[in-house]
């Protein structure tokens, strides 16, 4: 009994100490606003947040938010361990836009680069910071997304990235994985980063159908991309689509990238891909961890300031994993050798064409 009494007293003392310490941690009030932050140095980012949401991202999970997220990957992956070139997440895609926007892989980023350069210059922020901040805010605009970390203080880029550092959708899986490994990312981390495609749409793969989404719920950060890429197609699928990097999707109005199709079926990535199909929590946490790593490629994190509490808290999603109308487990092209595809419900009613993401939304 004496031991139990001692342990109970010790637990009480620890609890009181923790409570007293918590009371000592005060949030800084940002001048002229009702906002607070754990670090007063982050207060200036609230005005950047307001500017972005009002004028670029429009506070919605639309084209602006999608493209800001795409830009964060294209800027950060411009880094090579083997050849020691590229500054990673340093904003070189803005600072040296004349060079990097000429790379084929960066086609379609011109408008967001111009927009974010204007915001960065207006608020005195580095281009590396504005790219990763806009991506984190854009993701937060999408229901079901995780709240991403944001560290501020990246110095400005001193040189452009090298052409060829951004993987292309028409490349073989082996080439894509080798490029990502050279940038410091494993096959599992690549699949986690591709959760971004659940809120993505293509403008440049096929310019005749701009805004074509990669899954049926492009305004929701859900697991549908990992389900719908695993569906078999029709008309001799997987025959290539009309444009390089595209294969035929069995869902009207949806685009399937060749790289997504192949990664969903390759032995190196198929089981990770499938593991996200009905596990939103796993997909979300894996994406957040991979983005945390991506956002600081090439940076010394000891010199950065954690301003994550400026990022809005995303809303939850009401979408649960499902097959689109008319599709069932019988339509799945099984690829993972160690586990069968999960049993999922099918949406009722007739199949409907998936609507494009409106421009400027």
From TrEMBL:
GO terms for molecular function: heme binding; metal ion binding; peroxidase activity. Disulfide bonds join 30-43, 42-307, 61-142, 271-336. The record marks 70 as: Transition state stabilizer. Heme b binds at residue 197. Keywords: Calcium, Disulfide bond, Glycoprotein, Heme, Iron, Metal-binding, Oxidoreductase, Peroxidase, Signal. PROSITE patterns: PEROXIDASE_1 (PS00435), PEROXIDASE_2 (PS00436), PEROXIDASE_4 (PS50873). It is an enzyme of class 1 (oxidoreductase). The keyword Signal applies. It comes from Rickenella mellea. The active site is at residue 74. Its EC number is 1.11.1.-. Residues 69-340 form the Plant heme peroxidase family profile domain. Its cofactor is Ca(2+); heme b. Residues 341-361 are annotated as: Disordered. The lineage of its organism: Eukaryota, Fungi, Dikarya, Basidiomycota, Agaricomycotina. Residues 1-22 form the signal peptide. Ca(2+) 2 binds at residues 198, 215, 217, 222. This is Peroxidase. Ca(2+) 1 binds at residues 75, 88, 90, 92. Binds 2 calcium ions per subunit. Binds 1 heme b (iron(II)-protoporphyrin IX) group per subunit. The keyword Iron applies. It holds the Pfam family peroxidase. One of its GO terms (biological process) is cellular response to oxidative stress. SUPFAM superfamilies: Heme-dependent peroxidases. InterPro entries: Ccp1-like, Haem_peroxidase, Haem_peroxidase_sf, Ligninase, Ligninase_C, Peroxidases_AS, Peroxidases_heam-ligand_BS. Belongs to the peroxidase family. Ligninase subfamily.
